[in-house]
Amino acid sequence: MRAWGLLLLVALLTLGSQLPAALARRKGEKSGGCPPDDGPCLLSVPDHCVDDSQCPARMKCCYKACFRQCVRKISVKPGSCPEDRLRCVSPVQHLCHQDSDCKGSARCCLGACGRDCRSPARG
Length: 123
Description:
Helices cover 19% and strands 18% of the residues. By secondary structure, it is of the alpha+beta class. The longest helix has 23 residues, at 2-24. It comes from Lynx pardinus.
């Protein structure tokens, strides 16, 4: 009887260690991120997918041209982009396209004047 109790305890601890990772993503959501959607919107195009589970292995269900479709996922660094409260008076210019374009822990964040590399927000 004691062996069964120990086995049950080990099983619960093992499952519990996997719980935070499983709860961090919605059901069916794959790791990685979506590339920026900078293209013009195509009018009246229905979504091609609803969630990541409908896409092939290395793809995610993301907005592109203003409708959801399966696109190649990109790597995303930890942390979130800081909020930008500025208004831009110059033309939009993107200095990065995705997090991997930025050095160290910096993230490629959308700001008032376009995307640039920024330190992630704390919290």
